[in-house]
UniProtKB/TrEMBL annotation:
This is Cytochrome P450. Its cofactor is heme. It comes from the Eukaryota. It comes from Clavelina lepadiformis (Light-bulb sea squirt). Keywords: Heme, Iron, Metal-binding, Monooxygenase, Oxidoreductase. PANTHER family: CYTOCHROME P450 2U1 (PTHR24300:SF397), CYTOCHROME P450 508A4-RELATED (PTHR24300). Belongs to the cytochrome P450 family.
Amino acid sequence: MYNPLVLLLGENLNAPNTLCVFGAIFVASLYYWYKRPNNFPPGPRGIPLLGYMPFMGKYPEAKLLKLSETYGPVMSIRLATAEVVVFNEFNTLHEALIKHPNKFSGRIDFEWMKDISKNLGLVTVDYGPFFRSQRKFGFHTLRGFGMGKKSMESRVIEEAAFLNENFRSHEGKPFEVKSILRAAVANNASSVIFGKRYSYDDKEFAKIIEIMLEEFEDQAFAAVNLILFFAPKLVNIPPFTKFHRQYARSTRIFIDMIRKSVIEHEETYDEENPRDFIDAFLKEIKAGSDFFSNEQLFFYVRDLMIAGTETTSTYLTWTCVILLHYPQMQKKLRQEINEIIGPSGTVQMSHKPKMHYTSAFIQELLRFRTALPMTYHKMNEDAEFNGYSIPKDTMVLVNMWAVHNDPNVWEEPLQFNPQRFLDADGKFIVSNQVIPFSLGARRCVGEQLARMEIFLLLVSIIQKFEILPDPDAEKIPALDDAVNGLIYSPFPLRIVAKQI
Ligand code: HEM
């Protein structure tokens, strides 16, 4: 076999020349590593192979905001093998996502995800005609159109009564509240999608929630998932293979459950009386609409159930943590509820415009604890933006946490303070800079349902119960300690719900 050094150096092969060759290779590798696309936004490169990954810490969204002080609101970062652009500020985010949806609204086509989700559903589907048709349908249907007589609001109000009943059943003794709020929220999604709710202790229901949210609870899974985002080729190497197999397995089980329900829907389908999301979708399939198929329905339902459960229930759990920290705010909320609805009236969405303090509290909740701190997009085409060139297919991180904690916009952003959204007359000020549902072409399709759930469930709880700490706990859970996996979620939480 030929020695490449002999080929290169011939009779000049000696120790100093060999050293020079290795030096040149080393410099070339460094040049390749630190080189970035032409006129790319500035940002740290980290170390070879890993990029900036080892320096991101437990709260990458906060780290990125800090880095933007040096590199500006549009910056880049090398994460393992990926060149990533990050938007950290409202104006740039607004400009990119609202004014140029065609350029900034794609999703990366990860091979490892594709062999599980088959490019179906909505969350991971790239921008294009298929995506637009499915999104339009979802947006319309999740606003209650095409799902029959039972309104979205009446489904949530019904669930609020079951949730109150569960709180009452603990008779003032401490209980774990996160799993109960999650069950209530999963029931709302289930009622809208499957036309059915479950009792909180139903075994089948518990299994669905477990399968659905396995990866949210598991911090190691979340970490692996994150690494695969930026170094997708690792999927073929242990321990990543194991996590990938686990994800594929839980997806298969969940899709089989959904398939069973779709078959039941087909057997009892009545075109004149659509009951839920599945019926509305079946109608499109039967009409032969482009891009509508049974397989797409299964994955769409999976995406809605997962996206619609952990996010909303996370906000409700944070509400309980906040109420424990600020009993005065709890009193103020109850006072307004009593004035507008009364101690035993049924809360409805029509009450909301009159409830200024409650609206300010909820907007501050959405700002303060951004449940999904960041979302990822992909460039669909080359773009010139803010003076930089961003090539097609670059990953874009939308840092909503940074928008919510921008010190140039918010006074003391780390403080929970609903007053910031009340004017001198105590009237609610809507802020367009609170964007937990993101912006533009990929903005959350379940936003209206989520906002309805947060308002109706939160008000109905505070109306009937005083939320108090578990007397056996050493201290009240901190407001800034959380599971920061795919979602920024509080740890399981024990409270006392004292009936009023
Ligand atoms: C407070 C609760 C919720 C929050 C904070 C939230 C937030 C978000 C965010 C930030 C995105 C990503 C947008 C982007 O990539 O730019 C998203 C997407 C999505 N959400 Fe929500 N969401 C919530 C509730 C829901 C509910 C109740 C549903 C449905 C039942 C839902 C369904 C979806 C779906 C399907 C997508 C993917 C949209 C797409 O890729 O085009 N979400 N959500």
